């Protein structure tokens, strides 16, 4: 079905419309063999609060952006190669329902659909696209993925020292290795994580010690299940992260 659509006029026209919605700031999306599988609005759990984002699923990439005018204009385009994607369902928590994790080596985050049916359709289509890509390329699924950041609202104190309270002066920061919300003194060190950045990035002291001694597996395991287990609390806008690659998220 996808192969038949690849060179169809209807598919080319649909992709062109998406390109036009992102405008000159967006990357070109039309390439031979690319097919637009589906699109829709999902709620992305950003570092300050959940935000609506427009998502487009192609047979080889996942694209999303901020909604400026629904179906007419989007900005801050993000393109994720599906070969590097793995997804995991997450349990419903309060108002956050029908969610799953999108995990890649460079960035991982949670999204939520409006209904359980919509969630199932998104996950099935993503898994099918990833499976087809890996089958054609002969590659194996990626085992490395960036940590899912704990939202600001889930930490009133540093998740490492458990002492420093966050205020407008004592700001929140995120460890790029474990995703925890930490204070400045607990995250003064930098470490090179090539999958995330060409420059050393902020990490907490705990992860730094493990990475420095080569115990990377132990460091990763500290974060693997904490997202779905951590309690949800009221959302706030107390602080931002000074070295966040995307200040809106």
* Tally of individual domains: 2
What is the CATH architecture assignment of the largest domain?
Roll
CA radius of gyration? 19 Å
Tally of helical segments: 6
CATH class of the largest domain: Mainly Beta
Percent helix: 10-25%
Proportion of strand residues: 15-25%
Query: Quick one: how many beta strands?
Result: 11
Outline: globular
CATH superfamily of the largest domain: Pleckstrin-homology domain (PH domain)/Phosphotyrosine-binding domain (PTB)
Strand order of the largest sheet: 4-3-2-1-7-6-5
Detail the poorly predicted runs: 218-249
Structural class: alpha+beta
Written as H for each helix and E for each strand, in order along the chain, the element string is HHEEEEEEEHEEEEHHH
Major sheet summary line: 7 strands, antiparallel
Give the end-to-end Cα distance, rounded to a whole number of Å.
36 Å
CATH topology tier name of the largest domain: PH-domain like
The overall average pLDDT, rounded, is 86
Biased composition (Polar residues): 221-232
Domain PH: 35-131
Function: May play a role in early endosome fusion upstream of RAB5, hence regulating receptor trafficking and fluid-phase transport. Enhances cellular sensitivity to TNF-induced apoptosis.
Protein name: Pleckstrin homology domain-containing family F member 2
Outline:
The protein has helices at 2-6, 9-22, 116-137, 205-212, 216-221, 226-229, and strands at 36-45, 50-58, 61-69, 73-81, 86-90, 99-103, 108-112, 173-174, 181-182, 190-191, 201-202. By secondary structure, it is α+β, with helices and mostly antiparallel strands.
